[in-house]
Amino acid sequence: MNLFDLARLAYSATVSSTAVVDQLGRMAVKLVLSSSAVDVETARRLVDAMKDDAPQRTGALREGITSRTEGNQTIVEASAERDAWDYAPFVESGTEFMSAEPFFYDNADRILGERAERMDDVAGSL
């Protein structure tokens, strides 16, 4: 192998590694965009399912089930106040005076499990 062949081989390796880096960059962007879309859809589904399962008395609990995005996190929360107390946890878990009316954690377990499957699909599609 002469010097010219070595130079051509080195150039070929450089071009190939640049192409790999470019491809990985495109895959990373696709992964971020796709996973963000999955998270937004998951949050919407969580809110809808929780509102469907929350008891309807005054409507405060259903109105207090919301989602928001802060940075790279999507947060789903439930809150309902009466007399300065947030009673959403008592509805979910029950008390010695009232039976539980689960609306939050069962839906979260189910829908977040489905989210994990969708994220596997996103990663597999790259």
Describe what you observe in this structure.
The chain has 126 residues and is of the alpha+beta class. It has one domain (34-124). It has four helices and four strands, in the order ααββββαα. The strands form two sheets. The protein has a two-stranded antiparallel sheet. The two termini are 38 Å apart. The model has no long low-confidence stretch (mean pLDDT 85).
Question: What's this entry about, in short?
Answer:
By secondary structure, the chain is α+β, with helices and mostly antiparallel strands. The protein contains four helices and four strands.
Order of strands in the sheet with most strands: 1-2
Helix content, binned percent: 55-70%
Oligomer: single chain
Largest β-sheet summary: 2 strands, antiparallel
What is the straight-line distance between the termini? 38 Å
The amount of beta strand, in percent, is: 5-15%
Following the backbone from N to C, one meets helices and strands in this order, namely HHEEEEHH
What's the number of domains? 1
Mean pLDDT: 85
Give me the number of helical elements. 4
Decide which structural class fits the backbone: alpha+beta
Over all CA atoms, what is the radius of gyration? 25 Å
Unreliable spans: none
- How would you describe the shape? elongated
Number of strands: 4
